[in-house]
Specification:
- 72% of the residues lie in helices and 7% in strands.
- The chain is an alpha+beta fold.
- The protein has 4 domains: 75 residues; 68 residues; 89 residues, no CATH class; 182 residues.
- A 5-stranded mixed beta barrel has the order 1-2-3-4-5.
- Strand 4 and strand 5 form a beta hairpin.
- The longest helix is centred in the N-terminal third of the chain and has 76 residues.
- The protein is elongated and about 185 Å long.
Length: 464
């Protein structure tokens, strides 16, 4: 019976023992009386905690109810404020409409004036953006942009000072377009370096540095940049002379780009055009071969012309002498007659013809080669052109014909060899004609003198 009572008490008080685990762990009961005492104390402690917890719950509920009441009051206040603001907004909207109507009536024709002013300011802003004068006066865009933005708002009007400044900028742009002025500017070199130099602006057409280099204005950066490739010919020299000139030196030559105010497309096309050396390189290996053949033909013709000129001078000297000199063809022909004075006419004639035949190849040396060069050079040029056209059409097949500039550049390069061939053939033909004429003149003298010798020899034999 005692065991059952202890078991029932332990089961009934298990919850209390769990809640008072800290107390039970701190003190372990040594008897059933102490266990009952501990349970009693745990019940008392739990009751106090439950009471405190209930009190806190009640207090929190009261606070929540108070906060809910405050939120409801705030919502009502905000709803009332929203209603008042809506009414105020409607009243203000009607007032603004009335004010705008009054403003429109008072503006009258000024509205059209301000419209023209806005349009003029916009056109001036776009013109000044790409104008060369912006390199010298860089802060005009900000004023015009702010004025246009101000004019776009219906509640703001331009001041008299702003209107006068628009007029002033228009007048200044027109005046500056006819001036040649020098000013200090930061110039960007092709290698990326930036230097402070004096720049000379020629109206709205061109800007050159103090070194005589052409510059370009980059609107996106608002800076002056030296062209990586300068125009060839005398243009840079004229630019240097213009920069160094003073006001009292009169007129100066200068290469002006007429498309300068619209972007300088003519100058760009001029400097991008290949020079003679670049054109020559466009001919490729065929062009190099034609050039080599042409140089060889030219040197051969000059050399033969010099030789024949010397031979001609010796022949002319021989004509004035009564004694044969073997340092020239005519002297060697006459030497045959001097060595055989008693030879019969037929044999002497054959001997003289033989000597003339020996001299002829020496006189006509190189003429055949010059003639061949004059005929082959155009054929080599045609070969290079056909080859270049094949390459160009292959590129068109691969990349398409969307860029006519690239296609025209390929065809232009292909035609360079034809030009080179003609440049070699035409002078070679002329040189061949000159050299051949000089050689035939000497040969004609040999034949003429040989015929005269035969005639004199025949008359002498008849007189005997």
């Amino acid at each position: 019976m005692k065991f059952k009572f202890v078991t029932a008490a332990a089961v009934a008080l298990s919850g209390a023992l769990t809640l008072s685990a800290g107390f039970a762990q701190a003190q372990e009961p040594k008897s059933l009386e102490e266990l009952l005492q501990f349970v009693k104390q745990g019940q008392v402690t739990e009751a106090k905690e439950n009471a405190a917890r209930e009190q806190r719950f009640a207090q929190a509920k009261a606070e929540q109810a108070n906060m809910l009441k405050q939120a409801e009051n705030e919502r009502a206040r905000q709803e009332q404020l929203s209603t008042e603001l809506e009414a105020t907004f409607e009243e203000n909207e009607l007032a603004v409409a009335d004010k705008q109507k009054v403003l429109k009536e008072r503006l009258g024709t000024l509205a059209e004036l301000f419209g023209h002013l806005t349009s003029t300011a916009g056109d001036l802003s776009s013109n000044l953006e790409n104008s060369l004068t912006s390199a010298q006066y860089p802060n005009r865009q900000e004023f015009l942009d702010s004025l246009i933005k101000k004019m776009s708002d219906s509640d703001k009007l331009p001041s008299i000072e702003e209107i006068e400044r628009v007029w002033y900028e228009l007048q200044r742009e027109m005046v500056e377009s006819g001036k040649v002025v020098t000013f200090n500017a930061e110039i960007a070199k092709p290698n990326g370096d930036k230097v402070e130099q004096q720049a000379t602006r020629i109206g709205l057409f061109n800007v050159v540095s103090e070194e005589g280099k052409y510059l370009q204005f980059v609107p996106a950066k608002g800076t002056l940049e030296e062209l990586a490739r300068q125009p060839s010919g005398p243009y840079q020299g004229w630019a240097k002379d213009l920069v160094a000139a003073t006001g009292g030196e009169g007129f100066q030559k200068f290469g002006v780009d007429p498309t300068g105010p619209t972007g300088g497309s003519y100058l760009a096309a001029l400097i991008n055009s290949p020079n003679l050396e670049e054109r020559w390189h466009q001919g490729g290996y065929v062009g190099y071969a034609i050039t080599a053949v042409g140089v060889f033909g030219f040197l051969l013709a000059i050399w033969r012309l010099i030789v024949l000129t010397g031979v001609s001078a010796k022949v002319s000297s021989q004509l004035k002498s009564d004694k044969a000199n073997t340092n020239n063809p005519l002297g060697r022909v006459l030497k045959v007659h001097e060595d055989n004075p008693s030879m019969d006419t037929e044999t002497l004639e054959l001997k003289l013809d033989e000597q003339i035949l020996k001299e002829t190849p020496k006189l006509e040396s190189g003429l055949t080669l010059l003639k061949i060069i004059s005929a082959v050079a155009p054929l080599m040029g045609l070969l290079g052109t056909v080859t270049g056209m094949i390459i160009t059409f292959q590129a068109i097949t691969i990349f398409g014909a969307g860029d006519p500039k690239a296609m025209a550049g390929g065809i232009s390069g292909a035609l360079v060899t034809t030009v080179l061939g003609l440049l070699v053939a035409i002078p070679t033909v002329l040189l061949h004609t000159i050299v051949n004429g000089r050689a035939q003149r000497i040969i004609h003298v040999l034949n003429e003198q040989s015929t005269g010798i035969i005639a004199e020899h025949t008359e002498g034999n008849r007189g005997k």
